[in-house]
Design brief:
Blueprint: E1 3-5, E2 8-10, H1 27-76, H2 110-128, E3 133-140, E4 160-167, E5 181-184
Antiparallel strand pairs: 1-2, 3-4, 4-5
Helix pairs in contact: 1-2
Length: 186
């Protein structure tokens, strides 16, 4: 029986059982494809996480190194000469949490300006490199793995110089971490 609809002649749809199977994907093929897609997705996510962690570490290193060079230039230009009368190390003041007079608001004398600089330098490092640890001490400057620890050499050696060591935790274990770099200040 033929049916004429809008100028087209069609044959009614008949359900026919054919002996041929419809072409498509079998269940094992679909499962293998899903496995490959999930492995690719997990590799992509792992790469993205690793890239993000490395990017943050590189940004921290760049910022800390730039601030260390700034502090080294400040020392080289005589920034510490004002604090030379202090019996302790003036760099002990870097970790000081006490407020210092803001030299942006009102004029300061030289010692207050130096204290303000050290306080502001530490504040900027803390803001840009979370959980950064800073040690400034006299140490033997060697480019070796031994110089990348927080302890400073206490022996009397003519080769000792003032160095700055900066490090920060990387990853989930934030309790123990070595300095990321050691820079001579003078």
């Amino acid at each position: 029986m033929l049916i004429k609809i809008a100028g087209f002649v069609t044959e009614p749809h008949r359900c026919r059982q054919s002996s041929k199977r419809h072409k498509g994907f079998s269940l094992p093929e679909v499962m293998i494809a899903l496995l490959l897609v999930s492995l690719s997705a997990s590799a992509l996510i792992s790469t993205m996480v690793t890239t993000r962690v490395q990017t943050v570490s590189n940004a921290n290193f760049s910022t800390a190194f730039r601030l260390s060079v700034e502090l080294s230039d400040w020392v080289r230009q005589g920034g510490l000469k004002v604090l030379a009368s202090d019996p302790g190390s003036p760099f002990d003041l870097i970790d000081q949490e006490d407020s210092v007079s803001a030299c942006f608001v009102e004029p300061c004398h030289a010692e207050a300006a130096a204290l303000f600089y050290l306080h502001d330098w530490r504040r900027r490092l803390s803001l840009r490199v979370p959980n950064a640890r800073v040690v400034v001490c006299q140490d033997i400057v060697l480019i070796s793995p031994a110089s990348y620890n927080w302890l400073c050499d206490s022996s009397d050696s003519p080769f000792k110089t003032r160095v700055i060591k900066i490090g920060w935790p990387q990853g989930s274990d934030g309790s123990k971490f070595p300095p990321r770099f050691v820079l001579a200040l003078s």
